[in-house]
Amino acid sequence: MASEKHFKYIVLGGGVSGGYAAREFAKQGVQPGELAIISKEAVAPYERPALSKAYLFPQNPARIPGFHVCVGSGGERLLPEWYSEKGIELILSTEIVKADLASKTLTSAAGAIFTYEILLIATGSSVIKLSDFGTQGADSNNILYLREVDDADKLYAAIQAKKGGKAVVVGGGYIGLELSAVLKMNNLDVTMVFPEPWCMPRLFTADIAAFYESYYTNKGVKIVKGTVAVGFDADANGDVTSVKLKDGSMLEADIVVVGVGGRPLTTLFKGQVAEEKGGIKTDASFETSVPGVYAVGDVATFPMKIYNDVRRVEHVDHSRKSAEQAVKALKGKESGEAVPEYDYLPYFYSRSFDLSWQFYGDNVGEAVLFGDSDPSSAKPKFGSYWIKDGKVVGAFLEGGSADENGAIAKVARAQPAVANVEELKKEGLLFASKI
Question: Greatest CA separation found in the chain?
Fold first, then answer.
């Protein structure tokens, strides 16, 4: 007979959302033995953004336990002992392969059975792999992805093993930009390849992207746009040696890092819960169509009040905040206390080389660039506002101080009217500081 364990609450997923949910449960009050966090990873929840940045630094790289949650938002670092002290069961290295929401039962790959009263789905995303598309040679050694700390360890080992070698980064989004920078910092010869006309096309305008592409080029990163990897060659040991591109060219490679996006991990719940826009549909409390089942982070499609719309957001900020909101809401439901509804302002950020940008709001409408976007400036500082229906709906800033970043967040939240676009260009940050 397989072992069976019962918990009042189960958080399925030990990523950022799982860790922040645990902290919120502890704040709200949870009895020893009531809560379990089930994670397929072997370590307690940690701040995932560190993996593409400080984890791979050539000097003093970050390591677990240094970046367990909740240090990424200035909170306490929750070591494995913290969970024990709070009476929270941390069930690691456990992959759930079946979820039956009707019988409130989860089954692990090893056959263990977990039952619950309330479930919080925090399964996050998995990386899209080139082997998923049958790309020739995509299973060769040293073709790497980045999602979990194990992936980061493999990449770090490859960087050490191939010192001074050639790295090809496939993808021009977040991961592509952050990893191209960190590989270059490790003195590798780096080429970035992506099919779009410019980098980070889901967020950057052509003008914004032009700055980053020039900055990277000045740092020695080569950029190949408008084509994709269609195959890989390997040596007799199975180690990758080159990347074949659709335009017919070849790039030599000792390491290939692929960052072409992720997929929300919702398969376990297919047909059992309402879905929308690629995620699990929730209300403003992150409760799904199944009472007592909540979904947070990457997998949740939730009402975004500010835009009167439903959206799914893949970003650490939302992973943290949605987890906290769901726990507050479910505890509020139990006690009969009303909880303020989730009023999320989209927020994205990235850091690479000496650069650091933040974006708030919605990147729709006409984009207005301001400031010094010369990539050869000693300290470039520039930004963009997005104007729709005569109002500023989004704001981006590179090189801003904490106060300046706070100011652009206020603009995106307040959505002030703009009378004159030319004036706005001239005013730039000053416009934000008046809000």
Answer: 73
